[in-house]
Amino acid sequence: MKRKKIITQKTVPYLFCAPFIISFFVFLVYPMLNMVYTSFYKLQGINSYRFVGTDNYKRLLADTHIGTAIMNSIGFTIGIIVVNVTMALLLAVVLNNKITPLRKIFRSAIYIPALTSIIVAGIFFRLFFGSNANTPLNTLVSFFGGEPRQWLYDTKITGIITLVVTSTWRWLGTNVLYFLSALQTIPQDLYDAAYVDGANAKQRFRYVTLPGVKPILIFVVTILTYGGLRMFGESYVLWPNSSTPGDIGLTIVLYIYRTAFGQFDMGYASAMSVVLFAALMVLNAIYIKFFGIGKKEKI
After folding, report:
1. Residues in Cβ contact with 78 at an 8 Å cutoff, skipping those fewer than 6 apart
2. Rounded to whole angstroms, how far apart are CA atoms 248 and 242?
3. Which helix (H) or strand (E) holds 36?
4. Which three-class secondary structure state does DSSP give residue 184?
5. pLDDT tens digits for 175-225?
6. What predicted TM-score, i.e. pTM, was given to this entire model?
7. Vertex 153: Cα angle to 152 and 156 (nearest 5)
């Protein structure tokens, strides 16, 4: 009897996709469903849960720490969007200009911080923004006649500035490369035509460059928004203590982490995670509606 072939031309694609599909369900779908399930329970011991219904979600309304964490995350997100988009786009325009000296070297060098470990970068900036009068930033401030400050523990504004500087240093190069790739797709004929029509450099940037990089601009703003709201590594390294005065540097994900693994309150941490996920999905829908992502362009 002839054996029936299991591997055929129709089954081969499924076999190739099987590792991804299995990993997707095991490492993404199952944890998300388990997170929703756990949000309705309270951990009482190892593998011991007590059903509490929506009590974990009700706690969110009275928790002052989560409100502070949300405001810190929003302030940080706005800061990195403004700083990163502005600086990355301007640097990309400069590095895309053929008259810029050593532009190929700068293109490579500007990406190096993205390869640096967040732990190493966080420790460096924790020392740079240190409270001592002899730290690099306070030494620079004193040189110009200013007073040394405790940058990491002074105010929420200085805390957000510290996070923005750290994240910008690490991810600016990546965003510059995104904009560089977009700039190189803009035909030179458009710039030549604008120049012939009498457009100056500012007008060429406004009417040629910005429309040409719009898809990448939307993409960069989107990933910066998600990155800002789920930021964890920078705040965890800069403020290694479990608490800071006035919750300076406390972000949403850092608060979830401390609640889950510091207080072992997995149910409440899961409830916060579900709300954060839902908020990101709503934000994603707003982005799609506002920017018209996925719609066919009118000819």
Report:
1. 228
2. 11
3. helix 30-38
4. coil
5. 999 999 999 888 888 888 888 888 888 888 888 888 889 889 988 998 899
6. 0.83
7. 85
